[in-house]
Amino acid sequence: MTHPTQIRGEHLLSALPLATSGVPVLPLRAGKVPFGNCPRCTGNACGGRLNMKTPGPCACPAPCHGWAAATTDPDVLTSPGWARAWREAAAVAYHPGGAGVTVVDLDDVAAIAWARETLPATRIVPTTRGEHWLYRGAMPSANAVRPGVDVKSAMSYARWLGPGTGTMAALPDVVRALIVKAPAPVRPAAVTVSAPAGSGKCPHRTRTYLERGIAMAEQRIAEATAAVHNTVFGVFLAVLSTHGRCGCLTVAHTERLFTAAQAKGESPRHCADAWANALVRLGL
């Protein structure tokens, strides 16, 4: 009779040839999940490899930080720090992105039917409930891109279930497009906004001066490519410091600014909070 630990030890024997062929591998524990962080990284005391969005491999002495533990180094795979994990492993996983591969994980019959109608033919690996469709090329990963479909590539892991059958096709645009979210429709702010009543001297020689200021603020928000939260607050602060003390700024103006911010993904609540904080900062 074969002892359970001997069966589990075979996972390392399966992993080593994959690593030699250039596929970064790691052990999975029961439940098809990675092993927990090593003692020095418990509770992400190290800062968290996943939180830092840093590509692997991880340099920890034992399999650590999920997908980032995947490696092609046989010395690491057979090191003492990994021995316990291999003894307790329930499966072998790999990092598709590290192998230059994208896995379209089809979780049920309906998802498979969709893939057969929509995606180019490629290499297929049967899974417990569905299929993995493998394409040559890496891309960002995303879960639930449509019902029963996940995309696993960069910064992700997939269970190794064999080489599959069929010729692996190049990663098509239709798969890349699965993770591209359509822009959310711009909706009017769902909170009450107000403009300061104002009692100071009006600096606006003409109405055009104020309109130009609002238009410039809208443009600055629209052109933001990073730190959108900070950009929105900075714009609100600049508008209020220039136009907020004389009473010329109206609710219609604030709604234009809120609409521009929501078009960049800001929520109505964040817009209202940023506006209120800017008022407080300026003592209005």
Total number of beta strands: 10
Q: What is the number of helical segments per DSSP (H or I, 4+ residues)?
A: 9
Question: What global shape is seen?
Answer: elongated
Provide the residue-averaged pLDDT: 82
Query: What kind of sheet is the major sheet?
Result: 6 strands, mixed
N- to C-terminal distance: 81 Å
Description of the structure:
The chain has helices spanning 4-20, 74-77, 80-88, 109-118, 173-176, 207-222, 228-243, 251-263, 268-282; strands at 25-29, 33-34, 91-94, 101-106, 123-126, 131-136, 142-146, 149-152, 158-159, 169-170. It contains 9 helices and 10 strands. The termini are far apart. The protein is 37% helix and 14% strand. The longest helix is centred in the N-terminal third of the chain and has 17 residues, at 4-20. It is α+β, with helices and mostly antiparallel strands and 284 residues long. A hairpin with a 3-residue loop joins strand 1 (25-29) and strand 2. Residues 1-7 and 188-192 have low confidence and may be disordered. Helix 6 packs antiparallel against helix 7, helix 6 (207-222) packs parallel to helix 8 (251-263) and helix 7 (228-243) packs across helix 9. The strands form 2 sheets. Strands 4, 5, 6, 7, 8 and 10 form a 6-stranded mixed beta sheet that branches.
What's this model, at a glance?
With 284 residues, this protein is of the alpha+beta class. Helices cover 37% and strands 14% of the residues.
Task: Furnish the topology, listing elements before pairings.
Elements: H1 4-20, E1 25-29, E2 33-34, H2 74-77, H3 80-88, E3 91-94, E4 101-106, H4 109-118, E5 123-126, E6 131-136, E7 142-146, E8 149-152, E9 158-159, E10 169-170, H5 173-176, H6 207-222, H7 228-243, H8 251-263, H9 268-282
Parallel strand pairs: 6-10
Antiparallel strand pairs: 1-2, 1-3, 3-9, 4-6, 4-8, 5-6, 7-8
